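Q&A log
Question type: sequence-to-structure
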Amino acid sequence: MSISEQPAAEQVSGERPGWPILQQPRGFVVYLGLLVLAVLFLVGASAALTTPTISDVATFAALMLCAAVSVEGVRRLGQPRGISHDLLGAWWFPVVMLLPPVYALLAPIPVFVVLQTRVRWAWVHRRVFNACSVALCGFLASVLWHGAHAGDPIAGLGGAPGSSSSLLSVGGVVLAVLCCTAFTGFNTAMIAFAARVSGGPERGRSSALDREAVMVDTVELCVGITVAILAQLSLLLLAIAVPPILLLQRSLLYQQLQTAARTDPKTGLLNAPTWEQAAVNEISRARSTQGRTAVLIIDIDHFKRVNDSHGHLFGDQVLLGVATTIAQELRQADLLGRFGGEEFVVLLPGADTEEAGRAAERLRARVGGMEIAVDGVPVAITVSVGVAVVGDHGNDLVELLTAADLALYRAKETGRNRVCLPAGRPGLGGQIPGPREGHLPDTSEGHLPGSTPAPRSSGEVS
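Response status: OK
Response body:
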């Protein structure tokens, strides 16, 4: 299951006083408020239709105890930031099928309290969002399950007596798969919508729909249904389900934490050390095969002024927006990383100077066309790009980065919002090997033929 430790923009500065929830985008605050109200209303409505029994309470307590043990078992590993995946659905799904819907609304409370107090402290509004998302998804899936057995969705609000016994039949298992799939789909959609109303790019949606996430969700669904069948047979059988689930959860978290160590937390791109290692390997391969490879350094123009004028929170949205825009324009084989501050680096395997120039110009134009607003007022963002190519401007990563950095400096000095080549390379008398010198074609403006720098709007920071 996907959970979001960052459903809204990250709070990165203590300069703005007040409650953290009030510093989130208005759309997310309204969305979260509606979710909380919906959960409270449904708890009241479904509780009025539910007759509690000792058996139901015992089943709920046993499942929540197992979930708490699973959380405690991975406490030392911590929890990844951003959109992450876990196997807690192995305990949510049995609640959906074995108990009336009101229990699905209550199940996230003890588990997220344990996460908050024992694993990692997080902003309360993030925990509340995750709990509400799980509660509402579980409630909807439970209503589908019980409604199918009662023959009436409204009647299913109070639970359908005897519905849990159908898990021992093929038809019941098929229905369980459909309901659990609906649970996962609802959860994914809610997180994607939270990312959308937060005002930033929908990184949550792409993270939640990648191949690995689908595989994790499939495993979680299978394990959850298996646990539900065991619990239906006897609550004592839950004891044999905890160890394998705990092992799977530890393996999953370890992999996610390893990935987190290789990526930049604000943009999700490769961090500098990881990008450099991958770039060194690719450049070595290109040299051994006499191939071409290009390096781009992309710098956001006047980024300090953006931070000073609009705050670091907006600055982080700009970083994420630029990163997402660049990533969407690159090939699968290209390597994109955050180099530090407002700089990004791109490795283009197989690209010569002309191809690298076209790619750099395309990236510059796409970023210039981004739409990012502050209080409804659009703020134009532009980038400058320095280009260096293996063989023309250097033979290893250090030389290429130095050359690309010199080219970036030229772009900044000649007006920004343009693409440049280095003026020369140390040891070659200040000349670039090959027919091109200085800027890419059309040296008067530093851009490719047939294109012009993105027009500056009145809201542009420059």
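Response note: Residues 6-17, 200-209, 424-462 have pLDDT under 50 and may be disordered.
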